[in-house]
Design brief:
The protein has 223 residues and is α/β, with parallel strands linked by helices. The chain has helices at 10-19, 29-34, 41-50, 64-75, 89-100, 113-122, 131-135, 141-155, 169-178, 187-193, 197-213, and strands at 2-6, 24-26, 55-58, 81-86, 105-110, 126-129, 160-163, 182-185. The chain has a single domain, classed as Aldolase class I (TIM Barrel, Alpha-Beta Barrel). It has an eight-stranded parallel β-barrel with strand order 1-2-3-4-5-6-7-8, surrounded by seven helices. It is globular. The termini are far apart. The protein binds erythose-4-phosphate (E4P).
């Protein structure tokens, strides 16, 4: 399963890149605003200098022509830029045009398997079901992901499923068990993935046991 980092923060991206398992980045207007960025172009340019995998940048227009125009501009920033379009009728129409022009589209703000089916039929390269926001209204977000993976498998759609709106490591585990292609993960959750109290406890015990028998470094008296 590929891991994308769900952030517009360049420092978080640089740190995560050092871990070696960040396969891409997803941004959205709220993540850009959190960084105080009204104009996302420069930030996307900077991110694409650090990340070679897919970098999703979201259009702000809501009309078909505006989405197409913005999508073309974003797609020209770098070859790994993916254009994010909301799953509305207008977004689907813009997806069809941009996909035919060979731009990669990430259909975002997806909350049902039927929306995801439409995204695949429109030619989206990625679809982003928002599991955390579904959970928050009492809908089983990962159940929607499971339905999407089943439907795409039934018909051989190549659209990749990005599990989005991730709130905790359980979402990452469930995404992997279901067989989603990608999970886009906030930096805070990335930091939670590796932590386990038994690992910390075990490492401390190993080092303590070694300390009991370690010979002092030559010339240094063992005190
Ligand atoms: C990713 O592409 C989405 O925009 C993001 O995961 C949404 O997360 P949120 O529900 O925390 O805003």
């Amino acid at each position: 399963m590929k891991f994308f980092l769900d952030t517009a923060n360049l420092e978080e991206i640089k740190v995560a890149a050092a871990y070696g398992f960040m396969d891409g980045v997803t941004t959205n207007p709220s993540l850009m605003a959190r960084e105080g960025l009204g104009d996302q172009v420069k930030q996307i340019e900077a991110i694409c200098k650090v990340v070679t995998g897919p970098v999703s940048a979201e259009v702000l227009a809501t009309d078909i022509e505006g989405m197409i125009s913005e999508g073309r501009a974003l797609g020209k920033i770098a070859e790994n830029v993916v254009v994010k379009l909301p799953l509305t009728m207008q977004g689907l129409a813009a997806t069809k045009v941009l996909a035919e022009e060979r731009y990669k589209v990430n259909a975002t703000l997806v909350f049902s398997a039927l929306q995801a089916l439409l995204a695949a039929k429109a030619g989206a390269a990625f679809v982003s079901p928002f599991v955390g926001r579904l959970d928050e209204i009492g809908v089983d977000g990962m159940g929607v992901v499971e339905d999407i993976v089943t439907i795409y498998g039934n018909y051989g759609y190549e659209t990749e499923v990005i599990v989005a709106s991730v709130r905790h490591p359980q979402h990452v585990l469930q995404a992997a068990l279901i067989g989603a292609d990608i999970c886009t993960i906030p930096f805070k959750v990335v930091q939670q993935l590796s932590g386990h109290p038994l690992t910390d406890k075990g490492l401390a015990a190993f080092l303590a046991d070694h300390g009991k028998v370690a010979k002092p470094a030559s010339g240094r008296k063992k005190n």
